[in-house]
């Protein structure tokens, strides 16, 4: 096997050197009746050529990857500069271990420190961690953290938060003694409803709001921050489309206490849902309650600056069952991709990309709304996603768009909720050309 | 040294500031196509109070060349698997194949949206299904979910499954069954994960042999409140729990379930299967056993595998096959729920399947044999100089202590730091907690004999230095661009981000 | 050789108690701070919090470890050492003086009777290190 450096002959010599006659003897401490007496029933080895052939054929069977796409809902198509993949393909980054030995891991540590800084700048918060698995689990951990801080057990979430995110939060809190309540969204605006603020009481640990929300609508975060704080509760803001941070007022500036986001929009390919990267940021005063790894500045005896994993006493390997989280491995390389992306694009690039998303989305919305039988059911302002109401079943409409016109036109809301059969979510980013947009509009008018 | 090539101890190591310290207003590193739709004033689209007004203050402005030099320079400061061996016990730092990277970047996968119609993602779903089948065969546990994103995540999933199963089986009586037994040698994620499922933890002692104390296990099980046992096999000392069948029987008879932390599967693939041992549920670390890259701290992938009985409780959606079609099955009313949005870390599944198919069934077993052989070889080479607390033959990893060296004031940490000067990454230190001054060494199958000999020689040399010239070891590392950092000061006054104020500009910057 | 002042009471968890009337001042011993290493953070309760004897009232963190701190006597907190927030290293440099942690109004002043004397504590720590 070509990944095993020692030849069979060398291995035989090594066995002799340690006093064994066969490889089977290496497993003497495993009772014979527990040892497999047959080969594994997994496929036989493939050569590189055969392997690539197999996977390329499988890749071609994913028609959706070849079509023009207007899909969002938690995973976004954005342009990724070529250098991002080159940077993360650097051996020293992707085959490196967790930076527990700082003297030989400064590359990883310094890039994480930059990542933490960029996350703070974008979210308007004071401290950010080295990453979570994704936006959904980051939100779940934020809810657990809010309970730890306030020692209250009720959490109220807007029903306009991404349904899959809410599912994940439910899974995480089911044994944590936390009572998760959903507040209905406003049918007219598509934003979180008035019931959200009204439901807060002195047993509420946190309010959870997504902005832009699942329907693409931008929320009034300041109002929710004020409502939460008035009752001693925290505001947890979750974001699925991180690109929105390029143009929208930061959650930190609006008074959020914990901000979690999906960072996939920043230089991370769609890759059928993962690996992605969870951003997690909060105020300095809660730093010791943060889950996950943190990198801090440090100096050696000669006064040279370096970086090191710090405040580790929060984590599982030290505090065990009392840890702020069980997280160990996070999304290091994906955080690096996001860092490379954000630095390559820089502040101007993020602003321009975000503006293009906003403008193109507004244009598409205007043209679709002008089509007979189509309307925009929600009045709330949006960034790059919005809901369209069509003349009939969205599932059927989108299926025909895909198969007959080769366009991934949107995501039917009926896949996530009942009673919205004609509604679908459309996302437009800087990657959608005028040509694609015109094709979408004319295809919709034909169907 | 008898091994031939010696390790380089110094190399070009350029200095590099933080990107924010490199930033210059007006520099750009990108270019987007011109906007091809009409541009409206932002104020007409977004109310003023929702608009950003800080101009992304502090975010960098650099050119593409700046970005490339910045990252490439910093990369040279890292050790990595491609440079050499990581003898890290419990981490399984094996070769990260380039072929797997190429597979993961195939456009048909890389550009695929997770919410596209099932009909249009059949290739992607087939990959998940095939990997599930392979993992089921390898573990001997038929129920598989690839949704968890890392080992700890898979662990949490597995323990939640146990909780859900017991709640369903025992109804109200299950509330009396909230104790999870964990060996004193366990990894910290184990009790942390148990806690997330509402369990409290009781610790089981190990025998002098380093194995689970069966009497203590029986004693704890007799309380009647045991939901389950979490164990690692081989355990964190690298020893196979030969009484595993008995252990599982004891727990099952007490009404509990057995969870196995699969971190040490590199000693078992193709040789023995947890399902055959009586284990009910396991998590795997694809970033360990299945070679997906560590990436400086992830991404990982922590699939959860379980018995048929526990299958209904796995996360949704399940990926299933009907005739020749792959489908998402959301109809699992007993499921513990979703543990992550979408399907999990799909890119790592591609890599893991590529690994499995490249090895083939015989190659997988060969890798296991080579991994155990390498660890035994190191164990043999170091026993003359280092204290080896357990006599049982180690599997894929072996633990030593600093007992002999500490008599001269040289401790595990010092030995680890001095190893850096010899060109190696240190082994795992101070884990497991039950061994004083532990050094846990796992070479994996990816290390050739010459490098094993170099490692052994380096360790023996350090043992000599500890006696003849301890200062050299105590002040190590000497050959790195930065010495031991003052971690206490860093923890007292944490600086966790760059700030634009001048007092944060580093006066001693190495750039 | 760890310092063990004569005029204090000690617990087997390595806390010391200084009695002033019906109040008790509590901290950790020189032996404890030495085992912990450089203290980086001290978590303290709030004034008004009440504790039973041998209940944990906070924790002490070094870089690589965290230890709970227990109050050997029952009482309610009247004052905490706020300076430890900025200078946790005082626990290392002056464990019996500036490194004090909390001041309790004792619920039961007789609680100190069951504590160790300096000599008893010294013997105890000697036995522990063997």
Structure description:
The complex is a heterotrimer of chains A (about 450), B (about 500) and C (about 130). Chain A is of the alpha/beta class and about 450 residues long. Helix content of chain A is about 35%, strand content about 15%. In chain A, helix 5 (about 105-125) runs parallel beside helix 12 (about 330-370). The termini of chain A are far apart. Chain B has about 500 residues and is an alpha/beta fold. Chain B contains 17 helices and twelve strands. In chain B, about 60% of the residues are buried. Mean pLDDT of chain B is about 95; it is low at about 1-5 and about 505-510. Chain C has helices spanning about 30-35, 90-95, 120-130, and strands spanning about 10, 15-20, 25-30, 40-45, 50, 55-60, 65-70, 75-80, 100-105. Chain C has a six-stranded antiparallel β-sheet with strand order 1-2-3-9-8-5. A three-stranded antiparallel β-sheet of chain C has the order 4-6-7, with no helix packed on it. Chain C is globular, with a radius of gyration of 14 Å. Chain C starts with 8 loop residues before the first strand and ends with a helix. Chains A and B meet through helix 1, helix 2, helix 3, helix 4 and helix 5 of A and helix 3, helix 4, helix 5, helix 6 and helix 7 of B.
